[in-house]
Design brief:
Pfam families: TPT (PF03151). The protein is mainly alpha-helical. The protein has 16 helices and no strands.
Length: about 400
C-alpha cells in the first residue's frame, strides 16, 4: 500500500497557497475598486499592511532579527529600488494600455526569465528542451484569449516589454537573495514595503487620487466602505491578504524557482479573466468564441505540461515508494530500516523497463487527478455561465 503524506513545506503546497491567495486578493481588489477606483491608494494600503505585518512577525520571531552584513544591506537596497521601479513601470503601462494588450505582453515574462537566467547563469542546472517548449502553448493561450482586443502600438509595446523585463529581473533577484544570500523573506519585505508605499503615495497624489478620495468619502454616504462595519472589515481583510500574499510570493519563489513563479503568474491571469466574467460580468473580457475557450485550455494545458516536466519530480516520488537509489544508499546499509531495505531489494528484482513504465504511471496518475479536478471545476463554471447568459 502506497501512502502519501501532506506537508505544507513542499513546493507544491507553496504554489497552491500562493495561487489561492493571489486569486483571493484579485477578487477583493475588484470589489474595492468597483466602489473606489483608486489603484494607487490601494497599493499604498497594501504596502502599509505588509510593513506592519512584517514588523509584528519579526517581533514575534526573534530569528528574523538577524544582524546583516553591509553587503547584504547593499543588495537589499538595490532590490528595493528595482522593486519600486517595476511597480511604477507596470502601473504606468497599464494606465496607457488596454488590459488585453497588457496581458499579452506580460505573458512573455517566463521567456525573459529563461533568457536572463541562461545568459547570466543564474540557475544551478540547465532547463530541458521540453521545459522550453512547454512555455510556448502557455504564451500562445494567453494570446488567443485576448486576440480580438489588441490595440498595440510601438510605444506602448516597448514600455510594456520593459515592464516585463523588469518583472523578470525582480523575480530572479527575489530568488537569488533568498537562495544565495540566505536573506529571509520577511526581512526583504520589511525593507521593500516602505519604499513601495512611499512611491505609491506619490503616484496617487500626482494622479489626483488623494484629493478626490475625501470628496467621494463625504459625498457617497451610502457606500458600504465608508459607513458599514462590513466595508471596514473588507478593507482590513484586503490588507491582511496582501501581506500574506507578499510573504507567500517570496517563500514560494525560494521553494519553486523564478521560472515556475512566472509560469504560475500567466495561469493566474487566465483564471482571473474567467473569474471577471463569472462573478463580475466584465464586459471587456469574454471567451464566448471558440478561440477564447481554446486559448484558456491551451494556457492551462501549457501550465500542466510545465508542471509535469519541471515541478513533478519523478525521482523524489520513487524514493518515497521504492526506497533510495544505489547512489543515495548510505555506506552503513545495515542501519537502514528493515522494511525499507526489503522494499528496495524487491525493487531491484523487477525489470528495468517495467519500473520506468510503473514510475510514469504512478506519477502521472497523481497529476491526472489534480488536472481532472481542475478541468471538471472549470467545465462546471463554463456551463453555469452559459445557462446564465442564455
Amino acid at each position: 500500500m502506497i501512502r502519501y503524506t501532506c506537508s505544507l513545506n513542499t513546493p507544491e503546497s507553496h504554489l497552491i497557497i500562493y495561487l489561492a491567495l493571489n486569486l483571493l486578493l484579485t477578487l477583493l481588489n475588484k470589489i474595492v475598486l468597483c466602489q473606489y477606483p483608486y489603484p494607487w491608494l490601494l497599493t499604498a494600503w497594501h504596502a502599509l499592511c505588509s510593513s506592519m505585518g512584517t514588523y509584528v512577525s519579526r517581533r514575534l520571531d526573534s530569528q528574523n532579527l538577524e544582524h546583516r552584513s553591509q553587503r547584504k544591506n547593499y543588495y537589499i537596497l538595490l532590490f528595493s529600488i528595482l522593486y519600486t521601479i517595476n511597480i511604477a513601470v507596470s502601473n504606468v503601462s497599464l494606465g496607457i494600455m488596454t488590459i488585453p494588450d497588457h496581458l499579452v505582453i506580460r505573458s512573455t515574462i517566463p521567456i525573459f526569465v529563461l533568457i536572463i537566467s541562461s545568459l547570466f547563469r543564474l540557475h544551478t542546472r540547465t532547463y530541458s528542451p521540453l521545459t522550453i517548449l512547454s512555455l510556448l502553448p502557455l504564451t500562445l493561450g494567453v494570446l488567443l484569449v485576448s486576440h480580438d482586443s489588441l490595440t498595440l502600438t510601438l510605444d506602448t509595446t516597448i514600455l510594456c516589454l520593459l515592464g516585463a523585463l523588469l518583472s523578470a529581473c525582480k523575480t530572479l533577484s527575489t530568488n537569488s537573495l533568498q537562495t544565495h544570500l540566505s536573506i529571509p523573506a520577511l526581512t526583504i519585505i520589511h525593507h521593500v514595503a516602505p519604499l513601495a508605499g512611499i512611491q505609491a503615495t506619490i503616484w496617487s497624489y500626482m494622479n489626483g487620487e488623494i484629493d478626490e478620495f475625501p470628496v467621494k468619502q463625504i459625498s457617497s454616504t451610502s457606500s458600504p466602505l465608508s459607513t458599514s462595519h462590513s466595508g471596514i472589515l473588507l478593507i482590513l481583510t484586503n490588507g491582511l491578504v496582501a501581506f500574506l500574499l507578499n510573504w507567500s510570493s517570496f517563500t514560494t519563489n525560494k521553494k519553486a524557482g523564478a521560472l515556475t513563479m512566472a509560469v504560475l503568474g500567466n495561469i493566474k491571469q487566465v483564471i482571473s479573466i474567467a473569474i471577471s466574467i463569472v462573478i463580475f460580468r466584465d464586459a471587456n473580457a469574454s471567451f464566448t468564441g471558440f478561440a477564447h475557450i481554446f486559448g484558456i485550455i491551451l494556457a492551462v494545458g501549457g501550465g500542466f505540461l510545465y508542471s509535469l516536466v519541471e515541478v513533478g519530480t519523478f525521482g523524489d516520488s520513487m524514493d518515497n515508494m521504492f526506497g533510495p537509489s544505489k547512489e543515495d544508499l548510505s555506506e552503513n546499509a545495515e542501519e537502514d530500516i528493515g522494511g525499507r531495505k526489503t522494499v528496495y531489494m524487491l525493487h531491484e528484482l523487477k525489470p528495468r523497463r517495467f519500473l520506468e513504465v510503473k514510475r510514469w504511471r504512478i506519477e502521472v496518475s497523481r497529476l491526472t487527478i489534480i488536472c481532472c479536478g481542475l478541468v471538471f471545476t472549470f467545465s462546471v463554471l463554463l456551463f453555469w455561465v452559459y445557462f446564465l447568459l442564455v
